[in-house]
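Long-time lurker. I teach an intro course on protein structure, and each term I like to show students one example going from raw sequence to a predicted 3D structure in token notation. This year I'd like something fresh instead of my usual example. Would anyone be willing to generate the tokens for the chain below so I can use it in lecture? Attribution to the forum is fine with me.
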Amino acid sequence: MTGNPLLVRTFRVPFREMEAHHVEPGVREILARAQERIDSLAEDPAPRSYENTIQPLDDITQGVSEGLTPIHHLLSVAETPALREAFNSVLEEITQFWSRLPLNEGLWNQVKVFAETPEAKALGGIKARHLEKTLREFRRAGADLPAEEKSRLEEIRIELARLEQKFSENVLDATAAFFLHETTRERLDGIPEGPMSRFRDGARERGLEGWVLTLDFPSYEPVMKYCRTRSLREEIHRAYVGRCRGDEFDNLPLIPRILALRQSLAGILGHRDFPDYRLEEAM
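-- Reply from a regular --
Happy to contribute to a lecture. Here you go:
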């Protein structure tokens, strides 16, 4: 794995060195290293303390998050077909890792044992709050459920991850597919020179005269905010809010299944519905 930029931990993230072929081996190495540490923590026979229970758990999860974040960032700002394919090939493994983490009985037992120690009960401030939230996160993730329901939770989360990833990809593709070629300067009245310059560059890139407007936010926002032509604002707005509706990137068929899976997940975790489950922590 030497030389894989996804495994480099420096202040400056080496984004320009990261390529699609690094994703699969890099992600698998990140997850394997983390799983090895989780297994070691779950089996550690030493008396429990904050330093050998909560702190290493934080270090493990932070390491995985920091390792995967550059990939998610590149998918958001510089996605390519090869990068998308590489990420989708390991998406199930990533989902399994995060899903199984709080369902690991040995790990959960270590956290619960520590929570009952005099040290844990004497904690104050941030550490006390962090322990409280850690216990709650494990329970909210299904740590106390029977094995059969844990297995079902994992299946739901994997399918949800696939559907939600596809939903996001459709939005990206629909956004990239749209452009509006405008040749009448008066229609663009009110838009500052900065965005206008980008619109001209967009037209030149396509071999066109005039200006090209897209649905990317640096294009969408100045039109909606500054353009004095109501009909143009309406056209761009309708295109923006109508993405993925009845076209080749249609998201409508995905929505009922996503909602059904979320409802099932919430039910297994003891909530009336998914909004109740989410708002418990969000509000």
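Some talking points for your students: The radius of gyration is 24 Å. The CA atoms of residues 42 and 109 lie 8 Å apart.
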